[in-house]
Amino acid sequence: MSHPLHDPRYQRIAVLLTELRKERGLLQQDVADRLDRPQGFVSKVESGNRRLDVIELLDFLRALDADPHGFIDRLFEQPMPSLPR
């Protein structure tokens, strides 16, 4: 079984967060400043090397001025892989 960090669902979240940041014309440092975290934190999230828990995801979305409901809808626009057994 592969490491959970490499689950394609986490990779999809990372891609969407990166897309949102770029759509808003923000740098990783801008998001980091809004989160009061180092830029490396944002980089690790966007590269898929760091997962976010639910609270962190909500904070990240708030920093991006993104609606959590819209984010989830966007997440499910593409078929999601089956859940691991």
Automatic annotation (TrEMBL):
Pfam families: HTH_31. InterPro entries: Cro/C1-type_HTH, Lambda_DNA-bd_dom_sf. Coiled coil: none annotated. Residues 17-71 form the HTH cro/C1-type domain. This is Helix-turn-helix domain-containing protein. It comes from Paraburkholderia denitrificans.
